[in-house]
Amino acid sequence: MAKRISILGSTGSIGQSTLSVLRRHPDAFELVGISAGDNVELLAKQVEEFRPTIVSTKTEEGAKALHALLPKTQTTIVWGEEGACKVAQSQNAQVVVSAIVGAAGLKPTVAAIEAGKDIALANKESLVVAGAWMMNLAKKHGVRIFPVDSEHSAIFQSLGNAPTQGIRRLILTASGGPFFRKKDLDLHTVTKAQALAHPNWSMGEKITIDSATMMNKGLEVIEAKWLFDLPISQVDVVVHPQSIIHSMVEFWDGSIISQMGVPDMAAPIAYAISYPDRLKNIAPCVDFSTSSTLEFFEPDHERFPCINLARHAVEMGPTHPAALNGANEVTVKAFLDERIRFTQIASINEQVLLAFHERGCEELADFVAADAWGRAKALTIIQD
Q: Which residues contact residue 382 at a Cβ distance below 8 angstroms, ignoring those fewer than 6 apart?
């Protein structure tokens, strides 16, 4: 029987990759709901191809435009955050792929959990902003969270049924982005085009810039802490430029188990939505005759301070990561808009983190407020 899927963020890179998996395995899945942002033309094509029962656009204007493109559609069209939550809670869905970029994906993901849907989680910001609260909510509703990030999928696969008390540490691998090997490059001079030229992965702009600053790895350290219920001190990062080993688990007896594969997001997506099964012909196999060199390096924390910023945020208090995440979304956008230099992303993020004071952390609203504070503070610094 086909597994019923809803996708939050269907026109983004993860959303499109998920649809490619569904397209190749039409008997295994049925798409029942999708939400998207401003790319209404692509969304209309997705609705025509997959015929979901419900679709949500970012704005009411987008919904009207979609109606105009699909005047005879039988699909229910909604919009806004409320619309995305309706897609997440769709009665027909069994698994919700959370692929909206940034903190905008938090509330729809929460809506899916409250509706008892299993989550294929690509939106790392949900756990960065409100990890403890969200994992407790998932436990309360009996919801399973399957990681879609290649690193966390690798940890999930490497752990198997191993008890967490036998783990010495989780080792997340990082490509290093486009600049790790360029030791002589003055990062103050980095252009938008240079930062978006990732050597291994094809991703959206925000995630690609996070990779270039290595903030993505900082956010993933926080995400791993919550997903696998371990202290932040037991989550390490190693730079692995080939991106063949996606992450590793080191056990107390000295054994290390890793998951390997070519850099292709289709593989972790397929595993998350088909678990516990594995689908055929998802990604090409590693050709070890041409991939004979696997390199590993310590991160350069002086040139790329964002990993340690994320660690410090966790140590400072429950809502500090939310403030850091809010600041980072603003600074990345400012860099993409060419309003600040590349190195100012990290420096402004640090200023915001150090200025934030812990507040309540009992309700989701507390974490959302901290994220909003981080955004507002970063904007103030940029404008000054």
A: 330, 331, 334, 339, 340, 348
Q: Residue 373 CA to chain centroid, in angstroms?
A: 21
Cα–Cα distance measured from residue 215 to residue 346, given in angstroms and rounded to the nearest whole number: 8
d(CA 200, CA 156): 22
**230, two tokens:** 């371990």
Residues 100-159: tens digit of each pLDDT: 987 788 999 999 999 999 999 998 888 999 998 999 999 999 999 999 999 999 999 999
> Could you give the CA distance from residue 127 to residue 129 in angstroms, rounded to a whole number?
5
Measured CA to CA, the distance from residue 229 to residue 242 in angstroms comes to 28
Quote the pLDDT of residue 202. Answer: 67
In this structure, the strands spanning 256-260 and 235-239 are unpaired
Bridge partners, residue 248, by sequence: 171, 258
Q: Which residues of the chain have pLDDT under 70?
A: 201-202, 291
For 97, how many CA atoms within 13 A lie in the half-sphere containing its CB? 37
Residue 223 Cα distances to 44, 82, 103, 108, angstroms? 33, 25, 13, 18
Cis peptide before 276 (omega within 30 of 0): yes
Question: CA 79 → CA 66, 271, 365, distances in Å?
Answer: 10, 30, 22
> How much is the pTM?
0.90
